[in-house]
Here is the input.
Amino acid sequence: MKEEIKKFVADYLKKYPIKMPSISPAAGKVYDHHELENLVEAAMEGWWTDGRWVLEFEEKIKKYLGVKYVVSCNSGSSANLLAFSALCSRRLGKKQIKEGDEVITVAAGFPTTVNPIITNRCIPVFVDVDLMTKEIDVKEMQKALSKKTKAVMVAHTLGNPFELDAVKKFCDKHDLWLVEDNCDALGSKYKGKFTGTFGHIATVSCYPAHQITTAEGGFIFTDNLVLDTILRSIRDWGRHCWCPTGKDNTCEKRFCWKLGKLPKGYDHKFTYGELGYNLKMTDLTAAIGVAQMDKLDKFTKIRKKNFSYMYEKMKAFEEYFYLPQATKDSNPSWFGFTLTIKDPERLDRADLLDYMNQNGTSSRLVFAGNLIKQPYFVNNPDLKYRIVGDLKNTDYIMENSFWIGIYPAIDKEKIDRTVSVFAKYLQGK
Here is the structure.
């Protein structure tokens, strides 16, 4: 009966195929009957919380990336919170990041790369980015260094790897943690190696806009067993117990422990060693991810192909825009196609984006632009941070950059249509 139901799902999609957008969205999900069959099967099993599908999803990621440990969770933002919070655990001893410690990062990015630093009462130290690559300016990192510096936490913006050799060398020299926010960059490579596998810990988002989706979801990966243990504890309410969901007495000492000031024999499943949350992924979402992982290589190839085709077409407008530039030695799985206006007096970004939107081409800004100019920074005088330099390029990106879609549902026809929209707008400019 289960197989019959799954066949009905496939037949349904044949009769009522997924309607792809006629316009050119900036991002979106791509799926077929495999995701829906998995989702229906997981629903029929009735487990729903993290279980066999989550384990299979984590195993597929481990095999794909060649990492030792993967911890799934309910979003990329939660992944960043878990990753940084794990580095603040007392279990790390002298390597623990403590309140008031500093973390080098950038303001030209997404808020939830930086928010975990603030949430853990540490100090983000903002340095500028390179205008062409949109990645951290490694020359500024030395200026940001202080006795309080304990980590570097920065994203591979829009799928373009930052200069991993230089950043890793800096972190190794000064004994700093390196957290790679890989949320935009699953499938990207630097010198032939996947991004996310250079640092101590890395994160990925599985929101529909990203390289794969589980609807809502994310994961963290590391090769460090201690970090893996801490991550799972924080994700699972802070439990000291390491039993998987639905399992009891894995340690065979469930009622024998003496921890904290609890009475001896207090149930290990209700003993908490970390300040934690419930940030688990569900089997329903993981079932979608299992099917998506089988398509990741294909998705990556399409993104790269679309980027190359878009680049060749947009070269006609280099008089007006700085085109996206990959970091040296990198092979990005591009999240989007960035454009930066060369002469703001000649082109008004808001007017251009409004015209594009009215003519079927969606766009997005480079996330928060300059984070410290966002309302939650400006309106919170108690929020502590430090700036190195003038963040000149960050401000320029905030005022003059945007990106357009090249995700796998975009084809040559949609790219040609997007290019024609630019051509019409730029006539006479």
